[in-house]
Amino acid sequence: MDAAFTREQSEIRRTVRAAFAKGVPPGPPGRDGTAAEAGPGHDPALWSRLAGGLGLPGLALDERYGGAGCGTTELALAFEEIGRALVPLPLFATCGLVAPLITGLATERQRAGVLPRVADGSLTAALCVPGTALATALALTGGDADGAWAGGGRAGGIQARPDGHGGWRLYGEAEQVLDGHSAGLLLVAAHTGGFTRGRTLLFLVRCQDADGLRRTRWTALDETRPQARVQLRDTRAELLGDDPGADVPAALAAAGRTAAALLAAEAVGAAEAALDRTVEHVKDREQFGRAVGSFQAVKHRLADLYVRVQAARSAAYYAAWDPREGPLALAQCLEALRTVTGGAIQLHGGIGFTWEHEAHLYFKRGASDELLFGPVHRLRARAAETAGLFAPAAPAGAFRAGAGSGSGAREGAGV
Predict the structure, then answer these.
(1) pLDDT tens digits, 247-257
(2) Would you call 238 helix, strand, or coil by DSSP?
(3) N or C: where does the chain have the smaller number of CB atoms within 10 Å of the terminal CB?
(4) Domains and CATH numbers, the chain
């Protein structure tokens, strides 16, 4: 196997990095309150330039829908550069979560109506799952075959019912919808069919003409990844696809693995950028008449952080090649991001934790991603469970069956 990137893949990385270097002010945007904190949560002009000039939203979409026909590897390289610049964009919500589900489950009419607009950047989308169940719905930290996280017919969650005219009506709310306040299209996971015979389905809600839809942007820990609460009150919706028996939880789990691979690459880019800024700082900052970076303890600390970044990059690239390893790679990359950004704040000294410096933005990205898609120990536990590394627990009555003697107890427990 040749693990080297192709010329085309290297060119994608170089082009995206150059676009951010020329089109984005120095340092992560949002510190002045113009890009990340107000309006749509991203710079529309930059988004239009990335979509029209580079075709970034259509990078992994099929050519018949206006995309470039590339795969997860190419998109992951773009996400690594996005993480490096920490640019707030609706790319992950639109192309990392929604587009794969539409590609896999939608009818041809729905694909033709949505994906070309996604590819040219004129339409952004967001995935809505009930409450705070995003990581569970994507099967990153748990999950179940029947999609009980969607409400299970009980109070709460998001419920769907036929409207009697071939359409559907949705009722409920989602608390953590990435870029949900500005998306033109919502892909909503809702429970239908009652409690005993219910199932989870996906529905399209076109925000422009949606009735009973209310969206509120949250004040989030990481302002470069906007979140919103979406409330649905008897809102008109369209079933995604034409197969009511489609295995939606399995499709969400597959999308979750790909999304994890993209997030892992993004975390590597952010970690490397934080480390690069720290190296530049300790080279320029003087203490006791010499550069801080010349002290042996600082050199050792930076070397440790460098090793973590490179190990995380290896995991992220492997996951981009094989998205099935996405959740495990995400765990390693988020852990590396947490460690590197924490070290960056310490090595920057007194300025490192100030609001004016960008170090806290990288730290918040890692912390926010762990809250949304982790934490790390649960990502690893889920990956181990999926891989079958742990034997199933003994039945509850196994020990009681042999309680009369020590050997009988061991036999009853299967020891």
Answers:
(1) 898 999 999 99
(2) strand
(3) N
(4) 7-119 (1.10.540.10), 125-246 (2.40.110.10), 253-387 (1.20.140.10)
